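G., the chain you wanted modeled:
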Amino acid sequence: MKITHRIKMNLEEAERLQRLEMPLGDTNSREIEMYLYANQNMWTIPEDVAVVIRYKKPDGTVGEYDTLPDGTVAWSAVDNVLTIALVPQMLTVAGSVVLYVTLYYGEAVAQTYGLEILVKAPTADMPNYDTQDYANMTHVLRGPVIARQGQILTVDTVDDYGRVTAVGVMDAAQLVDENGSAVLHKQQNLTINQKIQARANIEAASQALVDFLMAKFTVDGLALSDERTTDKYSLYVSNGKLTLEKE
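Predicted structure as tokens:
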């Protein structure tokens, strides 16, 4: 069951503030069809457009969404007609609610002028409903306004279905410090003593021992010597066999 309100929205210039009236407490039953015009002509909505609906209630709470609480998309577009569904939070407080819509397509952004919804209580003694901010965007992510090159995007909030609703930024070093689950690689210039200490910290072989072993490798194989006779040998693989040959 849907009650559809229809208005003509001029994108070229602001006209008088249009007003719709709706009852306090209506839930999942109201939608608005906006017929968009510019230069006195129908303004065809781009096929790849993304839409965000924003509003402010008289008690100061606000909403920003493209998705309804049940996870369905809150809008549709055909030709110049933009249909938006109202979330329950929009009609929880009696008084003037100001609504507008933002359309994103490519690098362009177009916003409608404001539309007033006058929310009326059916009876004078009817109390307001539980009121709070509402944010639910899954097709247009709210991101940081300012960031620095090299920072990492992080997931700030998700909805009840695990879908990302907002992203933020964080320095890589901060991410490592706070989570301990990432390795930050940064080239270091260590002194000789620092290198020795670093190898000792991880119980690695000393540089002297590494150099001694590397010196044993030649183009002919591994150079070995008999400590008792001082005879020299070469250890190598030939035809799949390990061979020890005296020089």
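The longest helix spans residues 192-201.

Shout if anything looks off.
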